[in-house]
Structure formats: structure tokens, C-alpha cells
Amino acid sequence: MDNFIDDVKKASFALRSLFGETPLQKNIFLSNKYDAEIYLKREDLTPVRSYKIRGAFNFVSNILDKVPEDASFVCASAGNHAQGLAFICRHFKRKCVIFMPVTTPHQKINKTRGFGGDCVEIRLIGDTFDECYLAAQDYVKQGGGVMAPPFDDMQIITGQATVAYEIAEQWSELAGNNEPDFVIVPVGGGGLASGVSHYLHSNNWATKLYFAEPEGATSLQQSLKEGHRVKLEEMDTFVDGAAVAQIGALNFDMLRNFKPSDVIAIPENRLCATMVEMLNIEGIVLEPAGALAIDALKSLPRDVIKGKKIILVISGSNFDFERLPDVKERALRSEGLKKYFIFRFPQRPGALRSFLDQLGPEDDIARFEYLKKSARNFGSVLIGIETQHEENFALLEKKFKSSGWAYRNVTDDQVLSDFVI
Fold it and tell me: Of 328, 351, 371, which marks where a domain is finished?
């Protein structure tokens, strides 16, 4: 690591044969919202719409002459790493074999094939990533090629650290020697986080670093608490670009001096509200992992960030728009604008009319399911209600109780909600 800064600089210069540096842009909307100077490092604007192309390029280019020309580069990935590696192998005219779970959406398969062209072979194996990864490892062991790791490798880390090299150069042009107050970086396996943090500290930046991690997959935070790498037994995979059960070994070694409080756990539903907000207001498409750093601002006290200069690394925009209805649903629930109730409806004429009379002018029925299973006096009804202001629900529930309606709010009951909603 003694030559880390020089290696990152060389990797940055080499990358210019593929694409120019991604912009560091001041975002007026976020700056006004948080009364600070907010800058976005737009990794969503690389040729593959994520930073992963950087590590893939550095890894392949540094071992190209050491690998037989007929050997393939291999990876197991259903996302940005696969697309980055496919793009790079096509650039170098080398073969690439990418293992993906059978459950991978066709959109991601087609995008990877599009980036790799005739150089890429995609193999769909297993229902989960773990099964897919084992198949890729077996393929390599049998002489099938060279494994290109997604994050736990020094060449990959060096490539991802070129993000920090560009930030340092761009910030110098913007502000001279005045360093930003905060840099917030998303973290999954740790390739980007370890590369950026190590480069900035090696470059003697005193800037405070925060890491934004999905709340349902806090691999780094838990590992920092325990003082060693922890493998999560369960995790929420919604933020698929950053939901990793165990942070990389090399990556954790480079991050172990940070505190658990330096990691901000991002609620998945709240993250969806940030994605929708950036799409509607700024026209910026973000994948869940790409919105992590922006959403982290909601967790920091306003007086801490007021007037500060903050850089947010936007890691990617490979978003499947078939997921948009789910994202919008999660966003509404996070903001308290949509709730689900199970009511006991009396089996009599006019019951529905009397219920609807409880609703205000800003309330709307978004879902209504009624199953009359018998001739009982009461039947269960699932009702989803959307409103324009969160406080309307307090008034609604007060009306329900005063009118004698028996109901249960199942919005935050994860098991029941998943089953009936």
C-alpha cells in the first residue's frame, strides 16, 4: 500500500482511454433543502452507469499480459459488476463468462449481453447468488478462466479509488485548499468505501467520512461493533447493489479504524422516498444503492450539516423500471402517506357507505379487498388508504374509534403485511 496514491493516479490516467472523469456537480435542490453546499459525484454517468467499470478495468488491464489469450475472465454477478466486466472484456477483446442466478431479470441479462457483445457468455445457474457463485468458483477451479472478484481485491480497490482521485482534483479546482467538511460513500462489499477512504486519508484530507449502508444489510457496521468481520445470517436484499452478507476481508482491514457511528444505516422504505424525490424533482434516475449517500443526509442532525460543504458519491443508476411501483409504494409508506388496515365490516346494507363517510377530502381508497366466506355477521376487509398529509391519519383513526369500527393497522406488521399486501 506504500504506492497506493501512485497506483490510483496511474489507474485514473489509464481510464481516460475509456471515458472522461465523471462530474462533481453542485446540486441546488439538495443544497437549498439542507441549507448546505451539496455536491454529487455522478458515477451514474459512466458508460455502464456505475462505478464498477473502474475496478473491472484496473483488474483486467493489470493482469492481461499474464493470462493466456484463450482464457476467460469470470465473475458471478447479476448487477453492476457483471456489466462493468462485460464492457471491459469487450474493450480488450477478451472472453468473459458471467454466472447469474436463474432468477435474474431479463433486463439485467440483456444489458450485460449488450455491453459484452460477442465477448460475453452468460450462464444462468441456481436460484440464489450463493449457488451461482459456487458454480463460478468450480468453473475457475476446473481451468475455465480467471475469477474477477467484485470488491475483495487490491486491484479492484485501486480502481474504485479513482473516484477519490477525481474528487480531489475537481475539488481543488472548485475550492482550492479548502477541503469539504463531509464525504458520504455508499458501502456494500467495501470496494468503493475502502478505496475512497484510503486515498483521501493517504492524501492527507482531514474531511469527515460517513458510510451509508442498507439497514437490512449492515455488514460493515456490525463488523465494526464486533471488531472482526461478521457474516449476517439474514438480510434484506432490496438494495441489491449494496446488500452483502459479509464485507470483504481486505476491505474491512482498510476500514477497521472507523467507528460504528461512522456508518449510517439507511431504512429501505425511506430510501425509496429519496429515489422518487430525485426522479420527480431533479430527473435523476437512481438505483437503490445509488441513492444511499443522498438519503444519509436525513439521518444527520440539521445543525450538524447546516452551512457545510458535503460531497455525496452517487454510485449507480441501473434501475429496472419494473420495480417502480414497489418503490413508490414503499416511499408512500415511509412518508406516512399510505396505510393498510383490516376492518371488521358488519354484514348489512349501507355499511360501506357509512365507512366512506369517515374519509376526508384528501383521503383516497387505494385498495379494497373483501372476502365473504360465510353468513357471519361480520366480514374482514383489507383497505389501503392514501392521503396527502400524514396528520390526516390521526384524524381518520380517531373517527374510526369514535364510530365503533373494529380495525387493525397492519402497515408495519411485516409478516402479515407481506402475506396480505
Answer: 328
